Each structure stands twice: as structure tokens, then as C-alpha cells.
Amino acid sequence: MTVRARLRHTKRGLLVLAATVTLALGGLLASGATPSRAATQEPCDIYAAAGTPCVAAHSTTRALYAAYDGALYQVKRASDGTTTNVYPLTTGGYANSATQDSFCANTYCTITEIYDQSGNGNNLTDAPAGGAAGGPDILANAAAAPTTAGGHKVYGVFISPGMGYRDDSTKNIATGNASEGEYAVLDGSHYDNGCCFDYGNAETNNDDDGDGTMEAINFGNETTWGYGTGSGPWIMADLENGLFSGSAAGYNSNDPTTNYRFTTAMIEGGANQWAILGGNADSGSLATDYSGVRPSGYTTMKKQGAIILGIGGDNSDSSAGTFYEGVMTSGYPSSSTEASVQANIVSVGYANYTLPSNPFTSGATISLKATTPCCTSDYLTGDYPSSDEVGADAVTSSSSTTLKEDATWIVRPGLANTNCISFETDNGSGDYIRHYNFELYLEPNDGTGQFALDATFCPRAGNSGSNYSFMSYNYSYKYIRHYNYIGYVASDGGSNTWDASSLWYEDTTWAVATALS
Ligand code: AHR
Ligand code: AHR
């Protein structure tokens, strides 16, 4: 039996159960108890019971139906070009990330497909070229966004500029002026002011087809079209040729900066009526940041029903963000339905994934030893081989104080995201490691946003299966690597000589050693 057939079968059963379960869940909520993870209702069961069913349901972290046991997503590895699917650990449960971890050992994996759990086949795959940018887009690094859900290690979809997913040929997604709802759980610390980190309804031809031809959740601090209070990020609606924070273009004081580590973002869209809802995906209820009429020029929508993730409608791809789960519904969900969905999301308990023995606490001083067999006496060292470069140099306890300081790093909160880190040299100069043209340099922080991005690295499980690797924050498919003893950020295969696949996973894996200085 195919997954889809099995799903249809179980969904029929669920509809019968739905009313009873709604009552049971209502009772739980009324009594103040937290719905247990054995919940018989997941977000799409809640939407179905309310008559606004999911018509697309995407998540790399969990099943969004209690009865879903099909594949959640597909990964592809660089070593031999083969793919595998990641399934839930149990029916209706969390993603079995161990499948990915073993399949991707000693190589690099991308997320090639995010399956639609709704039975409509609205799977997200690599976005093609569009009016604003060429393609196909870069695929997300499958290991870039480890997190925990329900206590299980799972992975989100970490979008850097250039990355994006799309489905131009969908089934049952709202078109024209029809009503829909959309929610996404996002990383509120990972965003930028590029256009446009979106999830939702877009054009089927990858072009800007005019006002009202899309309706997607947007998350970021792009202020060209609309914005709210504070410095962002804001939850807005991308309605095409505009990100809207309220009834009109520009500033709307109702739309707050929303930057919870795990953020619930919702857009609802009906006939001359739409809403923005947002909140903390880990606690509490949702705020209604806007509910009212459409902006002028958007009164009658012309939705086309494609689905995008991480890009704008015309494949504008200069934005960043992290996606954990999201759905699109048929019909305008009621506020009580959205409240139940938020309660379900909260019950997941999304939390940061902590690396084993995490040596990267703020202020720690460490040295980083190469693990490639050639080079196990070499450490990541500043001012090597030339004064502002960073490379892998042989350092011993009898080396000069200067050399030992150059091979010692003070862990700082990431200049662009404090959930990642920056490396300040211990040589007293205050300089940081940054990449420029993908080479590593030791430079003073010039205070620019570009420097912050280039100097931020996210510690991850080592690409060789042990120790640690350091992912570039703005080029999340590249990691700190030594190549011919010079330091780079490198991908597993690519256009630069230092992207060579041979030894990539070892060259990008570093052992943490006691600080040399
Ligand atoms: O509406 C904002 C953006 O404008 C859309 O995402 C894109 O299609 C257009 O460039
Ligand atoms: O290292 C790659 C890019 O090169 C950096 O992001 C930028 O500063 C430079 O253009």
C-alpha cells in the first residue's frame, strides 16, 4: 500500500474520531493541563475537525497528523549522489534524525524534498529560476539546523541567501480570492533584510504577476514595503509587490517585533479580510497583530496556488531564515482553531540542541586541532601563513608565546547571531576570524553587518562523525576547512580548489584542545 493511500484511509477514520477528540482536548485545555505528546490530534487533525483542513503540511521535525507515518523529507549525499527518506520515529511522532546522521556520515547532505503530509502531493523541491534570480536555487544543508522537539534531536531547514524550495504544480491550494490559512514555526533569531523569506502561496510561473498574486507568511526585517514596531523581525504578509504589516503599506504600529527563538507565525487570508497572528512557539497564546480589510489594490486577491519556502514569488532569494514546520489550509481558520494549533505547537517543546560536552561557551578559550591524518599536530592559527591570514600551523608547548596566542581562540557570542559563535584571537589584538572571498582572515571588527555575518560560525557535530565542524552562518553549505594549510570556508565539492571533496569531511572536522596560551 502506498503512503498516500494509507494516509487517506487513516484520515477517513480520523474524521469520525475528530469530534470526540476535540471535546477531549477542549477539556484538557480548560483544566489547564498540557496536552500530552500522545495527543491524538496534531495540527492538521485540529484544522480538519474545524472544517478548515490542511491542504499542504510540511515539516522536517514531526508528523503534523496523528496518523501520519509517511516520509517527512528526503536527503541527498554528496559522496555518491544517492538519497534516503527520513520518517517519523513513531506514527504521528518526531523525525528519526538518526537516519540522516548515519546516511550522511563522512559526507555532505542536502534536503532535496520536503514531503506534503496532507495527501495532496504538494511536495517542496528545489526552486527553479524566476524573474528575480536564476536557478535552480541552492538546497539547504541538511545538518545546518539541529534542534530538539519533544526531547528528540531533529533538523530544521536553514535557508541562507540563494536557497529556496517551491512547488508550482499543486493540488487543492487556494486560488483567486478563495480563503486560506497558513502557519509556520520559525527561528526568530535567524532572519535578514533581504527579499524574501516566505512560506505560502505564490505564482505558478516564478514571476511577479502583480499585486495580489501571492499570499505568504514573510519573516524578516526588510523595510522596503512594510514594517512594524522596534527593529524587527516582523511577521508580515507577502501579497506581491509588498510585504504588509497591517491595513496599508509602510509602518503599522500594531505589528510588533517578534523574535522568539521559536516563533509561531500565521497569516489568514479571506475575501477582503486578512490577519497576522504571532507568538512564542514554546509558550503562551497568539497575539493578533492585525485583523481587518485588505490594503488598497489587494481587495480582490488573485492567488495562483504555488507554494514557496525561503524565497519571494519571483524567486527573489537574498533572504535567510529557518523553518521547522508549516501548513496551508483550505478555508479561513477560526481564532479558536488557531489557539488549539498554537497549544499543540507549544506542547512540542522546541528547544536548542546542545552539542555533546559543548566547549563553546561564551568566554571560553580553546585551541582547535586539525583531525586529518596528515595534520594532527596542526592548529587553527591566526597570522599564518601571512600576517592577516588564518591557517593550520604546527604548534607545540615549546612554541613561542606569540605563536601559542595565535593558536588560541576566545569564544564570543556570534556577532550576527548569539546562538552561534565568533572567534576572537587571544593575541591581544581583538581581531576576529572572518571569511572574505571564502578565505579566512584575522581582522578587526569594523562594525558592519557584513563583517558580523562573515565572522559568525555555528558549531555543529563534526562532519567526520566525531569532534566539531564550524558552519559559515551566511554560507551555510560551507565549513571552516584547512586546505594546503590555509584556512577557508569550503563546500563538499564546488568551484574553488579548496572545495575539493577529497578529505573534505576530515579537513572540516576539528578537535577542541586545551588552550595553548
Ligand atoms: O512582495 C515582495 C516581493 O516582490 C515578492 O516576493 C516578489 O515576487 C517581488 O519581487
Ligand atoms: O567570503 C565570501 C564573501 O566574500 C563574504 O561574505 C564577503 O565579505 C566577500 O565578498
SSE layout and pairing:
Elements: H1 3-30, H2 43-49, E1 54-59, E2 73-77, E3 83-86, H3 97-103, E4 109-114, E5 124-126, E6 145-149, E7 152-159, E8 165-167, E9 180-191, E10 198-202, E11 215-220, E12 226-227, E13 234-238, E14 243-244, E15 250-251, E16 262-270, E17 273-280, E18 287-292, E19 306-309, E20 321-329, H4 335-348, E21 351-352, E22 365-370, E23 378-382, E24 390-394, H5 401-406, E25 409-413, E26 421-425, E27 432-436, E28 439-443, H6 449-454, E29 457-461, E30 468-472, E31 479-483, E32 486-490, H7 504-507, E33 510-514
Parallel strand pairs: 12-15
Antiparallel strand pairs: 1-20, 2-3, 2-4, 4-5, 5-8, 6-7, 6-21, 7-20, 8-19, 9-16, 9-20, 10-11, 10-19, 11-13, 13-14, 16-17, 17-18, 22-25, 22-33, 23-24, 25-26, 27-28, 29-30, 31-32
Helix pairs in contact: 1-2, 2-4
The protein binds alpha-L-arabinofuranose (AHR) (2 copies).
One alpha-L-arabinofuranose binds at residues 132, 195-196, 208, 238, 240-243, 312-314, 316.
Q: What is shown here, in short?
A:
By secondary structure, the chain is of the alpha+beta class. It contains 7 helices and 33 strands.
Helix content: 10-25%
Report strand order across the widest sheet: 3-2-4-5-8-19-10-11-13-14
For this structure, the quaternary state is single chain
What is the residue-mean pLDDT, rounded to a whole number? 93
Radius of gyration, in Å, reads: 23 Å
- Detail the poorly predicted runs: 1-38
> Please, how many helices?
7
Report the portion of residues in β strands. Answer: 25-35%
Main β-sheet description: 10 strands, antiparallel
Terminal Cα span? 62 Å
Q: Which structural class best describes the helix and strand composition? A: alpha+beta
Number of strands: 33
What small molecules does this complex bind? alpha-L-arabinofuranose
What is the approximate shape? globular
